[in-house]
Write a structure and sequence with these properties.
Two copies of one chain form a homodimer.
Chain A (H helix, E strand, L loop, with lengths): L1 H11 L5 H17 L5 H16 L3 E5 L1 H6 L1 H10 L3 E4 L6 H13 L5 E2 L5 E2 L9 E2 L9 E5 L3 H9 L3 E5 L6 H5 L2 E3 L3 H16 L2 H10 L2 H15 L4
Parallel strand pairs in A: 1-2, 1-6, 2-3, 6-7, 7-8
Antiparallel strand pairs in A: 4-5
Chain lengths: 234, 234
């Protein structure tokens, strides 16, 4: 309920879009089917995602309106811990909203947020949504996309990037496209991920093991099974 | 997508609330699990609901912001076909929004919409949400609540009314509380219901049979099973 009020407030401030509010509702329904908790499978995916981020040459966290509204501090903390760059990318991009979202991240303490002046384009998606920054997402080898739409997730994967997605719908195109899908609520996932940075930073062997043993399809299948088991009629 | 644009537009006009947008998203997720179609079990529930409406002494259709935004014409058509009164009831009630929603219904062709001057209260729910009209919901024997929240659904049931709910979440409190729950999207459910008015108007025996043979718990269990079956990993 507090989360919803926060979204409503930041909708009023122009950070969150209408689509963002509806998407949040969809997430709520899937989270409900999940039992509103981080499952052990999601936790493992979060650990694997951190292994990828720590091994990356140019890791970037892609932030949209909902992410900026829901957990700016956690995004900043993760970006410092890894470290990784932060780039704002909006599904509904207008100059004004872009500035509002970036400003919101800066007000929360982010030092340098990319996205203001996009100077590159991703292949294969329409118009504005292809825009990104050369030193950020365009040249990134690993991109964390909390709450990303399917088209952009696919474009990132086609561009050869490791895509780490946080998505409550295990059947979404984003979930299926990602290298690692964390089927979890973003405000639960990010703190878990931050915790794993310390654990994995000095343990290259464990990072290797996690990455080589993780299969996203299998992981998603388990999440679907968890939701199926959780839907009960009695 | 067209539906979302309509909601966004009417959000801008003050008809739809923030909570309404998020609730719509939750519905989308459940509809996705349903296969975005009217199942045969939902269709039966819609037929039973019409049997109740036709047998009622004072049937009322309760309309909130989302219903007014999504399908004002269908609500009006159903209210004429039965006939049933229309009363606007908002979860987030302010004088201004109330007037906007009622005006929206009137602009769509509704002749007399109740709710402007509530002169009665339902027992057992807090503050504004208890308000209703004496000649409408307060004295109704059968109330159709498309997209109702759990608290009000329970209050209506406690007041001894037959509650007919349209709710995409078969596990919600509203779904469990209702006498008949139509687990279907409201813009699909209402046209189906309108179709059943003709079929059942002259057939009192069939109405009796439908009402006496329908069990909401069994119906909901089937809907849950349909969703479980529809969640597949391959």
């Amino acid at each position: 309920m507090v989360v919803r009020e926060r979204l409503a407030e930041l909708y009023g401030a122009g950070v969150v879009s209408t689509t963002g509010l509806i998407a949040h509702g969809r997430g709520e329904a899937f989270d409900y089917l999940l039992g509103e908790r981080t499952t052990s499978d999601a936790l493992l995916a979060e650990k694997v995602a951190i292994a990828y981020l720590l091994d990356a040459k140019n890791p970037v966290i892609s932030v949209n309106g909902n992410v900026a509204a829901l957990c700016p501090e956690e995004v900043i903390a993760l970006s410092r811990a890894v470290p990784a760059k932060i780039e704002v990318n909006l599904f509904h991009r207008t100059g004004g909203r872009m500035e509002k979202v970036i400003h919101h991240m800066e007000a929360a303490g982010a030092k340098s947020v990319l996205g203001r002046n996009p100077d590159a384009r991703l292949e294969g998606i329409a118009s504005d949504r292809a825009l990104c920054s050369k030193e950020g997402i365009y040249s990134a080898d690993v991109v964390l996309v909390p709450l990303e739409d399917g088209d952009r997730a696919e474009a990132l994967a086609r561009a050869g990037k490791i895509v780490l997605a946080i998505d409550l719908n295990p059947l979404s195109r984003t979930s299926e496209t990602a290298t690692v899908t964390m089927v979890d609520e973003v405000t639960r996932a990010l703190p878990n991920m931050i915790g794993f940075v310390k654990v994995l930073r000095e343990d290259r062997a464990e990072r290797r093991r996690l990455i080589s043993s993780f299969d996203n399809r299998t992981s998603l299948r388990k999440m679907v099974q968890t939701m199926r088991d959780h839907i009960q009629s009695d």
